[in-house]
């Protein structure tokens, strides 16, 4: 005859562990609902960008990693960390500032960090430390990394040039443009290797966590996961150039070179993981032992966490509503400048500017201005890097230049762009809240500071361009001479348009 536990006879329920699981799930769902604009923007990037499509599977992977540890987690003492409540308002404040000035990447990181903060507050640091990898891995869901495109392009171009020279193929390089005897190549954004790097780092981090216990082996594998895609992308680009060179530009010049690249990269990635298997370390079986006694479930603390998190979206909405949208003036006036000539076709285009101007002041000097009265989700002075090149134009080189003008020092971003039979030297800078700068970070800091102080948040991007002949120094001298005369009038014209 089988004994029946007294607890069942008495009608007592078994330990309700599901309630401890339901609390963070409900709190996380409430948090994601509060910040749904940021979450939807992140998901939209996953859907429409091949580079960041992996972000859609990061959250399910993290949930699976947590589920794997359910046995060991049950043995840990779980107790709320009330002192850690300070984490949430700090993260919320940073999110609000990022949202106000449309820094989507930072806002998305803050939402992910808040999810990790909920775990710390509700279950304490022992549980958070046990879940350190899944909580950290969740950060890879944020679509970020565009800042690496320029240095990756430069590295790939340098690698290809060095490889071509080592194999006896003559090549001339100007920035990202490589000229061979039977054709030319441009190392574009798609050739930078960013998508390879991101994919390898995401897979490599998961692989190292699952296969190794030693921190040294994990670190070594992660270093390889960063270095290998950089070298592999350089080899891929070199082989594509060589295929085009050997076939007199008949092969590897269209979509086929993308296919070659993915096949080559898949082979390299498979080889990496196959080699990594040789040094795998079997994880130890969970130690036997009693589960920790169920801790009181902090429902009230969960409500407090959500209440704190709800403050910041509401505050951001109030700050935006409190700032009325002003209508742009009919035109941008720049008195004091010479009469413009007939405008020439422009190589850059502003997206969503409240007011745009394009003028030509000599056969070789052109001026473009785009005014944004306030940051918006769909348009701001530094959205997507500012004014975008027309499809026919390619960026060759970029850098910075400092100019000593009569009204102060002006720092500009200098770029050399080219299309068939024509090259332009362009200088571009921003005028944000009455301050000239070539730093996108400073633009965002000025926007945030003036929004909080209820000051002016208008901004403009200003571009001057000159045709480049044999020597770029001549174009630079022409641009400098133009700005010596025109800069004060451009600044006052932009400020006056924003004050109306």
Describe the structure.
The protein has 500 residues and is of the alpha+beta class. The protein is 51% helix and 16% strand. It has 16 helices and 12 strands. The strands form 3 sheets. Strands 5, 6, 8, 9, 10, 11 and 12 form a 7-stranded antiparallel sheet that branches. Helix 6 packs parallel to helix 14 and helix 7 runs antiparallel to helix 14.
Fill in the keyword field for this structure:
alpha+beta; three-stranded antiparallel β-sheet; single chain; disordered N terminus; 500 residues
Summarize the structure.
By secondary structure, the chain is α+β, with helices and mostly antiparallel strands. The protein is built from 16 helices and twelve strands. Strand 8 (394-405) and strand 9 form a beta hairpin.
Radius of gyration: 28 Å
Number of helices: 16
User: Which blocks of ≥5 consecutive residues have pLDDT under 50?
Assistant: 1-16
From the N-terminal CA to the C-terminal CA, the straight-line distance is 91 Å
Q: What is the molecular shape?
A: flat
What proportion strand? 15-25%
What is the total tally of β strands?
12
> What characterizes the major β-sheet?
7 strands, antiparallel
Mean residue pLDDT: 81
DSSP helix fraction: 40-55%
H and E string: HHHHHHHHHHEEEHHHHEEEEEEEEHEH
Class by SSE composition: alpha+beta
Please describe the topology of this protein.
Elements: H1 6-9, H2 17-34, H3 36-48, H4 55-68, H5 70-74, H6 87-100, H7 104-123, H8 125-130, H9 132-137, H10 149-166, E1 172-174, E2 177-180, E3 183-186, H11 194-211, H12 215-246, H13 256-276, H14 299-321, E4 348-349, E5 355-362, E6 365-372, E7 388-389, E8 394-405, E9 408-419, E10 422-432, E11 435-437, H15 440-452, E12 459-467, H16 472-499
Antiparallel strand pairs: 1-2, 2-3, 4-7, 5-6, 6-12, 8-9, 9-10, 10-11, 10-12
Helix pairs in contact: 2-7, 2-14, 3-7, 6-7, 6-14, 7-14, 10-12, 11-12, 11-13, 12-13
């Amino acid at each position: 005859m089988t004994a029946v536990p007294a607890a069942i006879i008495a009608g007592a329920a078994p330990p309700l562990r599901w309630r401890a699981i339901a609390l963070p799930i409900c709190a996380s769902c409430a948090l994601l609902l509060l910040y749904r604009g940021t979450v939807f923007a992140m998901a939209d990037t996953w859907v429409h960008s091949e580079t960041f499509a992996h972000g859609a599977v990061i959250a399910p992977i993290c949930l699976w990693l947590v589920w794997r540890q359910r046995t060991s987690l049950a043995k840990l003492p779980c107790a709320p960390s009330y002192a850690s409540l300070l984490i949430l308002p700090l993260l919320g404040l940073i999110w609000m500032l990022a949202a106000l000035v449309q820094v989507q990447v930072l806002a998305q990181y803050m939402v992910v960090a808040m999810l990790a903060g909920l775990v710390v507050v509700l279950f304490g640091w022992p549980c958070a430390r046990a879940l350190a990898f899944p909580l950290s891995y969740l950060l890879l869901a944020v679509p970020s990394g565009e800042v690496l495109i320029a240095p990756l392009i430069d590295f790939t171009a340098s690698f290809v040039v060095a490889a071509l020279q080592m194999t006896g193929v003559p090549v001339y390089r100007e920035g990202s443009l490589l000229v061979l005897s039977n054709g030319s190549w441009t190392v574009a954004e798609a050739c930078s290797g960013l998508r390879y790097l991101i994919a390898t780092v995401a897979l490599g981090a998961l692989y190292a966590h699952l296969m190794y216990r030693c921190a040294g082996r994990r670190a070594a594998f992660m270093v390889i996961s960063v270095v290998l895609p950089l070298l592999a992308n350089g080899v891929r680009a070199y082989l594509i150039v060589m295929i085009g060179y050997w076939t007199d530009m008949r092969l590897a010049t269209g979509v086929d070179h993308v296919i070659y690249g993915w096949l080559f990269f898949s082979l390299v990635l498979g080889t990496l993981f196959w080699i990594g298997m040789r040094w795998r370390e079997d994880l130890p079986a969970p130690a036997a032992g009693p589960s920790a006694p169920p801790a009181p479930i902090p429902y009230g603390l969960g409500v407090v966490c959500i209440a704190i998190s709800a403050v910041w979206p509401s505050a951001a909405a109030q700050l935006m509503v409190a700032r009325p949208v002003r209508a742009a003036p009919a035109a941008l006036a720049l008195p004091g400048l010479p009469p413009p000539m007939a405008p020439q076709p422009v190589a850059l285009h502003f997206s969503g500017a409240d007011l745009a101007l394009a003028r030509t002041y000599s056969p070789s000097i052109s001026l473009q201005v785009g005014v944004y009265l306030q940051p918006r989700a769909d348009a701001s002075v530094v959205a997507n890097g500012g004014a975008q090149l027309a499809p026919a134009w390619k960026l060759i080189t970029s850098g910075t230049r400092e100019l000593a003008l009569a009204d102060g020092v002006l720092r500009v971003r200098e770029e050399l762009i080219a299309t068939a039979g024509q090259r332009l030297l362009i200088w571009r800078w921003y005028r944000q809240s009455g301050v000239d700068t070539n730093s996108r970070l400073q633009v965002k800091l000025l926007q945030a500071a003036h929004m909080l102080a209820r000051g002016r948040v208008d901004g403009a991007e200003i571009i001057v361009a000159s045709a480049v002949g044999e020597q770029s120094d001549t174009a630079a001298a022409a641009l400098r001479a133009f700005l010596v005369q025109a800069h004060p009038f451009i600044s006052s014209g932009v400020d006056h348009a924003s004050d109306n």
